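pipeline/complex-builder :: batch 7 item 3
reading input block
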Amino acid sequence: MAQTVTEYDTIAAISTPPGEGAISIVRLSGEGAVATAAAVFKGRDLTRVASHTINYGHILDPQSGETVDEVMVSVMRAPKTYTREDLVEINCHGGIVSTNRVLQLLVGAGARLAEPGEFTKRAFLNGRIDLTQAESVMDLIRAKTDRAMQVAVDQLDGNLNHLITALRQEILEVLAQVEVNIDYPEYDTDEMTTQLLQEKAQTVLARVDTLLQTASQGKVLRNGLATAIVGRPNVGKSSLLNHMLHEDKAIVTDVAGTTRDVLEEYVNVRGVPLKLVDTAGIRDTEDKVEKIGVERSRQAITKADLVLLVLDASQPLTAEDSALIDATAAKRRIVVLNKQDLPVQLQLPTSVPSNTVVRTSITTGAGVEALDTKIADIFNAGIENSQSTLMVTNARQIGLLRQAKVSLQAVLTGIEAGMPIDLVQIDMTAAWDKLGEITGDAAPDELITQLFSQFCLGK
Amino acid sequence: MPEVKEYEAATYDVVVVGAGHAGCEAALAAARMGQHTLLITISLEMLAFMPCNPSVGGPAKGIVVREIDALGGEMGRNIDKTYIQMRLLNTGKGPAVRALRAQADKAAYHRSMKATIEATPNLDLRQGLVERLLVEDDACVGVVAATGARYRAKSVVLTAGTSSRGKIIIGELMYSSGPNNSLPSIRLSEDLERQGFKLRRFKTGTPPRVLGRSIDFSQTEEQPGDTTPNHFSFTTPDSVYLKDQLSCWMTYTNDQTHAIIRENLDRAPMFSGVIKGVGPRYCPSIEDKVVRFADKPRHQLFLEPEGRDTDEYYVGDFSTSMPEEVQLKMLRSVAGLQNAELMRPGYAIEYDIIEPWQLTATLETKVVPNLFTAGQMNGTSGYEEAAGQGLIAGINAALRAQGKPGFTLQRSDAYIGVMIDDLVTKGTNEPYRLLTSRAEYRLILRHDNADLRLTDKGRALGLIDDARYAAFTAKRAAITAEIKRLQAVRLRPKDVNDWLAANGGAPLKDGVLASDFLKRPEVTYQALMAFAPAAAPVDRYVAEEATVQIKYAGYIDKEQQSIAKLHRLEAKKIPVNLDYAAINGLATEARQKLTKIQPETLAQASRISGVNPADVAILSVYIEQGRIAKVQA
């Protein structure tokens, strides 16, 4: 019997987010995971400890004998692990510098630095999770807020799977009816009318469309809603920014590989992740009292999905204010009339809808709650049936949904052009296949089985 | 009892066992490819016999007959000589699913095929019961008949059909028998098991036959044949189309029939547990239909004449293994059959099949080299499915005898390719029937283009003679020329707008190519000829083919694209004798199935049921990373 040699090298990575934290975890997976960890560990012999135990000890530099960190090491042997391989997790306590050294020592002892997502890839390759689950895990890792987390968790549970499977079943029933009329032309089953195929294509198309609408919301959930705070100097932009960033709302303060200058700051407002655009610009202009140009604001506005236009309510409307109102008119926008603690002098032009206006005094904190609510409302208004958290957030899934949509549209065009039903069916089958690719289902005999369960056939 | 002495009877290139629809095609193909061939069968009276329905063709099956014809097989020509009714089905649908069905004169079909075989050079026909294989050095080198005759051959084709340990069941009556009370083949099955084959039991059935003059046809609906000529073989001219056709007749079961069936279910072998074999879902017995689809008030039945010289009628869709007396009661409850005289009772038959995953795509067995199997023995049902496999097995047995590489058809080449790939890749849990829905590319696998798809292949195998090939190439050139002509003729609005207005089409604003005009649903080729007449009228089949290719070009292109994708997957070869147990991550079921079937390509692997896309992804990743390249012999 021929033999296959498989190569599963041992991979290692820091699995907690970069930055300072009380604990950082270094993870190892692969056949040599336990031995590699044992090579740099002083404490119990890890190669002999029971599976799924946590072991206290120290990481030593085998060259110098120097103690690098005080650690707890979890040893989990295959197959009951996330990757279905031997898995070791080292809880480091000494901060980022020593965690990095632990990782380097492990690489020195024979591990390879893991590529992004490689642990999940192994879990998939080893049959631990399916394709949609793998994608959800990747999204979970990247999830920026609780709400995004919930979407990812729902997908992991297979909610998307259930929905797509239901859509496919509907298509399948129509296809079976088309097939029965082709393979059993003399059979006395109800003649499949073109009209029924048309109606079904329309229903499924509508649902695919709804899912695709959530796709843009889903992208926002994962990447954050790009938000620009604009306004003349000294209207309170900086205070608003500080209000958002402090009060424990900042959930991501650093992105690997970026420098402070191009920092993107994320804040979480009522579960809506905002990615604040050009916060450096706000600081620069206000800190250095530079004269803000409308041009710079325009750039920020272009990049933004949501604009918070701050106006000083204690001053009459200036030409600059008017220019900014016009420049943001086409955007999703909240007009923040700040400094309500002072006598109000400003009169808004009637072109600004009153339901997009919030009155605040950021210094006293008045109205900031209302602002948060407004932000959340604007976001949620985009989500139909917002009681459901089911959204499509993954690029591959969105791509396949779009292809399914094209096929469903082709079904409708074909019917309008008077094409015979067995040709129109080609596009219906294509839609069914594309949806099947999303869930990773492709059971070639499904149609045949459906045919015989749905119809009583002879001849 | 004294033991039969074996003797060396003769040596052939190819021996074919069984002369049903598979065996006849296999033997003719091998002989026509120049191989000295023996066709040996239990009873010469059963050669090309139709033990069930007296018809050939239908959706998918009719296309298979055309494929057989384009490859130089016999079924198409033989039915064209012996039909008593011809119909083109699905004419209201697209070109992909049109198919011919003929009612056959059963006896004439048998006689005509027998005469062809007797007249074929290189081919010996003999009556005999084959009891075992001759296997030397782990390869098949011939067969031994019950008389003791040893027939040696370079390759052997088995087409034992439902004879293999056949058992007929009629109610409480059960006896060992081949189809239609012929001699069963018992010892060959036992020998196959000894050789290491995995066999299983299947079941099929046939309805009763009744006397024509006892039927009151006035209570039934007539189903006449077509007046427009059509034939299965590309070589049969329209001029010989049969004018005097016989009709079929349609009637229905009713509440009373269903009540009789329900009252007697305890006597139905299907439900009393007597029948162990797996029956076909698509050809259920009437008792099965009544039980499974209890809400249906009636089931359609067809009364089909079995031939011109007999008054026997086949009661189509009334397959049953109820006791004879119950069958009679059931029949007489049906409109038109109140006074029916039963000539032969319906019966169920159980038989052995070779689980077809033990075969390669050439239909050679993986268990015993140089042994090929075809037909019902491989788990299929239907004359056309059997004939298609017989042809491929015969061709490959001949190629093997000549020391040449095998011949296979892909899923995108032919329905025959779809069927064989399904069988050897997935196996089958019930008698396998071809359906158009089994084909991914049915718009490519049309009945009108079977010759375009396959004649070149038949020619290369030596199965298409010079005259026929010349006629084919002329037709092909004429199709290309006509398409080209229509793509060059420009129509002006003033030429066609009156016609469009009269025929409910939107008027033209600008000029348009004749080929684009033909794409309009309301425009037929005949209508187009008023505006873009050909210098000399083209042949009817050339016009039909040109029309299909132009009208449905958009959809055809879509299928061609998916075929290109399939071919890329087919190009990803999986190393032979791969140890799937050593590949981490495959699901247990996938691992078992892959080990059993040993697919040759990633595409084939993806079609195995129980092998999920995730498993294919893992395999693909391994292949791409060169990880399974490290296969040690």
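note: DSSP finds 21 helices and 25 strands in chain B.
queue -> next item
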